[in-house]
Amino acid sequence: MVYPLGMIGIGIGLAYLAAFAAGGLLLRCGFPLPSSSGRIGRIDGLRGLLALSVMMHHFVIWMQATRLGGSWERPTVLFLENLGGGSVSIFFMITGFLFHRVALEGFHVSRMAALWVGRFFRLTPMVAASVVATCLIILWTQDYSIRPETVFTPLFSWVAALGQPPLLGHADSGRIDAYVLWSLKYEWAFYLFGLPLMAIAYDLLRGKAPNATLPLALIFGSLAMARLAALDWLAFPPLFAMGMLASEATKLEKARIWSSSRGGMLAASACLLAALACAPKPYGTPWDFLLGLFFASVACGNDVFGILRRRALLALGECSYGIYLFHGVILFVLFDFGAPALAALDTASLPLLLPLVAIVVVALTAATFIVIEKPGVAFGRAIIASFSSATPAMSEDKAIG
C-alpha cells in the first residue's frame, strides 16, 4: 500500500485545529467545564488530544480498507499505527495515575465498592448508548438476524466490555465502532482486581518499602512473566504501573521543576515522537517507557508550552470518552453509507475530510456528555452518597481505557 502521507499529515494537522476551534465554540455556547478543584488541567487537555489521535488512526484504517487495496488492519506506517495504540497506552497510564492514591490508602471494602459504583455509572451508560447506535446502524443496513442467541448474549458482552461478538447476527459489527470496546476490558480488570490487590499489598508493606516499589515490581514482574508465557494481557499491567510511578514522581520537587522547564518539555516531546515513530507495535515494547516518561513529565507540570492548558482543549478533554466511543460510528457512516459520495474524491483528497469529521465528532460527543455522561456520573455520586461516606471525587476522575 502507498499512503498519501503528505495529505494525511495535512489532514491530521487541520483536524486538530478544527477540533480545537470546535472546543472554543463549545465554551462560548456555555459548555460546562469542571471545577479546577481536584483536577489536573494538563491531563484533561491531554485526554482530548489522545481521543482525537485514536480517531485519526481509525480514519487511516478506513482509507486503506476502502481505497488503498488493504484490509481492516494496522497501518504499516508505524507513526500512523502508534497514533492509536500509543494514545491508548497513555490512557491506561492516566488511569493508573488517577487511582494510585486509592491504592495508597489501603484496602477498604466500602471505599472499593463506592469506586466500583462510581466507575459503573461513569463508564457504562455511554457504552450502552454507543451499542444502541451500533444496533440502529445494523438495522438500517438490513443485514441482521434477531434471535435470542444473536441479541442477548452479544448485547451483554458489548455493554460489559467482555468482547464484541457479532451483534444482531451482523458478521462484522465491531467495525461499526472501530472495535474500541476492547480497552475497557482492561480498565475493568484494573478496577476490579488490580486496584484492590495493590491496595492490599500497600497495607502489607506500609512503612517497609518506598511507595514506588510496588509499581516497579508490577512492571518487571509482568516483563518476566511475558518471557515465560505468551499472554497478550501481560503487556498492559506495566502501563497502569507507569501511571502509578508518575503519581510518585509528582512528589519530587526536582521532577516538577525539570518537567516545567523548556528543556524538560523538549525532552518529553522527543520521547513521545520517538515512541510513535519507532515502536514496532503499540503495546509491550521498550518504547512504552518513552511514553511513560512523556506522561510522567505531563503529570509533573509539563503543559507542552501551554497547549495542554488551553480552555478549548479542556472542553475536548471533557468530551474525550465520547470521542473515543463514538468516532467509529461517524467514520462508518462516512465510509460505508457515504461511499457513493466519496467516490467522487480522489484518494489523496480523502484526508482533507478529517477536519469536518473532527467537528462532527466533537459536536456529537459534547451532546452525549451533557445528556448521558454527566447525568450518569451525578447519579453514581448520588448512589454513593446514599450508602457511603466515600469522597465524591472518586466518581469524577476520568479515564478512557
> Main sheet?
none
Radius of gyration: 21 Å
* Structural class designation: mainly alpha
Strand content: under 5%
Q: Which residues form runs of ≥5 with pLDDT under 50?
A: 390-396
The rough form would be described as: globular
How are helices and strands ordered from N to C? HHHHHHHHHHHHHHH
- Beta-strand segment tally: 0
Question: How much helicity do the residues have?
Answer: 55-70%
What kind of assembly state do the chains in view correspond to?
Answer: single chain
Helices and strands, with pairings:
Blueprint: H1 5-28, H2 41-66, H3 78-104, H4 109-141, H5 148-159, H6 182-205, H7 213-228, H8 237-249, H9 253-260, H10 262-278, H11 288-300, H12 311-318, H13 320-337, H14 339-342, H15 354-387
Helix pairs in contact: 1-2, 1-12, 1-15, 2-3, 2-12, 2-13, 3-6, 3-8, 3-10, 3-11, 4-13, 4-15, 7-8, 8-11, 10-11, 13-15
Features:
401 residues, mainly alpha
Overview of this protein structure:
By secondary structure, the protein is mostly helical. It has one domain. Helix content is 69%, strand content 0%. It is built from 15 helices and no strands. Helix 1 crosses helix 12, helix 3 (78-104) packs parallel to helix 6 and helix 3 (78-104) packs across helix 11 (288-300). The protein starts with a helix and ends in a 14-residue tail after the last helix. Mean pLDDT is 93; it is low at 390-396.
